[in-house]
Amino acid sequence: MTTLDARPSTDALVVAHSPGAPDGEWWRDAVIYQVYPRSFADGSGDGIGDLPGITSRLDHLAELGVDAVWLSPFYRSPQADAGYDVSDYRDVDPLFGTLDDFDAMLARAHGLGLRVIVDLVPNHTSDEHAWFVEALAAGPGSPARERYLFREGRGEDGQEPPNNWQSIFGGPAWTRLPDGQWYLHLFDSRQPDLNWEHPEVRAEFEDVLRFWLDRGVDGFRIDVAHGMVKAPGLPDWDGHVSMIEGSEQAFEEAEHALHEHASGAAERVDEVTGSGNQGPMFDQEGVHDIYRAWHRVLAEYDGDRALVAEAWVEPLSRLARYVRPDEMHQAFNFAFLATLWHAPSLRDVITASYLASDSVGAPTTWVLSNHDVVRHASRLGLATPGSRPNGIGADDEQPDEELGLRRARCATLLMLGLPGSAYLYQGEELGLPDHTTLPADVRQDPAFFRTQGAELGRDGCRVPLPWSAQEPGFGFSPTGEAWLPQPSTWARYAADAQRGVPGSTYETYRTALRVRRAEALGSGGLTWLPSRDDVLDLVNRDVRVVANLGTEPVELPAGTRVLLASGPLDAAADGTLLIGSDTTVWVRP
Ligand code: NOJ
């Protein structure tokens, strides 16, 4: 047993980040809740979530205590990649409602004091976008084809693709047309990549930004922010394009590297995380000009509008370049999300994150779950946490649900105790796991089909939310319909089964957000206190955050005031409180 050091000597403290002003720009310390529209709440009864459904449930988010909402795409789209294939950037898909429904949702959100960020998908359009339809009809050599990346093939009669790039969803990144030309798609063949060297493409997206800014949105999440500009000549590349969180092989290599160097300097994180999405299709210098231009567009508007980068860029020092003062405002910290359940690694990645973001004056932007990864309640419940990054199916090891939830809550309280901004993914406030036994015939993720099922894909984390334990379909839709089946065990996760229940995941999140706001933790500073290797012990303003990832309990000094704990605390015979395994507490230092 270890007792927390009540008063560590000052020379043992490591300051990783100094506090900022509590009333800085809103996005620096905001907690932002990701709504995945098709799975949040269904108003129409067709089993697919929609904008009126979102509006009807915004009270839940205000009550939870988040500052803002980010909506994944709801634009016109044939839904080949669940809306990340946009055919009209200025309209709402009838599946989700109308522009009037959007305005009503935005007005309600603003009325509740919630800001709203929408998703912008600039790397590619849908194959049903007017530009692509025009390009196909216009034929090879036409100006309409110059807005995309059409090329002649290699080999005899151009039968071979123009280069060897692979799609992130599996298979070649090129598709050949009957007229003989090929077009590039880093994702599905129904998501042709735009040519960002083309002035019309640049002008169009600035106009799309203005369209939504004029409607009143508070910012944009930029999809594939690291991919829009490709290296000149589109050279061959033999590296691996990882499917978001990485391959199992990459995972094993990272785990090996981390355990070889159990703890160490922050620079080592750059070494360990430095093998990500590199290559001629990612993180090219030219993308930064685009963000400088967009920064200027947003700056014309009042109210601190913000851009957040979805850039799977490593190492962290490269990611920081997206949030330089004249570029974007935030960039998701996926290095943190992908870190193993290993206290020294987490400490390293957290410290490195502050070093990197402080060097450009940006906030760190924490995230543990989203619509592209296995939910943290599930990935942390695997024997080797995180070992199934491409989805979990019925034939795979099933996560230990109780362990996963305990660790997920522990991880969340660690994250929310840190300075910076944080994103929550819908349902994590309920402790939702992935659906880990979805049958193949209901799967919809293009990655599943393009890899012939080798990657199960992301449907498991996209299952419609349970609102009411006793209603059909757990109250997701008035008809009980749901576009993906919900596990029958989800009654216990339903929002109405947790509201008002002390210690429920929902109430724990709510308290965490209240204390975080009251104590100004988001704009605070981080000082590491000396601790056991498997314990993270830090002070942020007047709150001490202790996360025990080890198996041995940690004893709280007598008289410590506990503000919040991610799980029940045991008491020793003399009444001393013990922080058990996989538990985080917030205490008054
Ligand atoms: C990242 C999005 O988050 C993901 O859902 C989508 O499939 C790809 N970008 C392609 O747009």
UniProtKB/TrEMBL annotation:
* SUPFAM superfamilies named in the record: (Trans)glycosidases
Protein known as: Alpha-glucosidase
Output the InterPro entries linked to this UniProt entry: GH (IPR017853), GH13_cat_dom (IPR006047), O16G_dom_2 (IPR045857)
Arranged from A to Z, the UniProt key words for this protein are: Glycoprotein
Which regions are flagged for Basic and acidic residues bias? 259-271
Superkingdom assignment: Bacteria
Q: Where is this region: Disordered?
A: 259-280
| Entry-linked Pfam families | Alpha-amylase (PF00128)
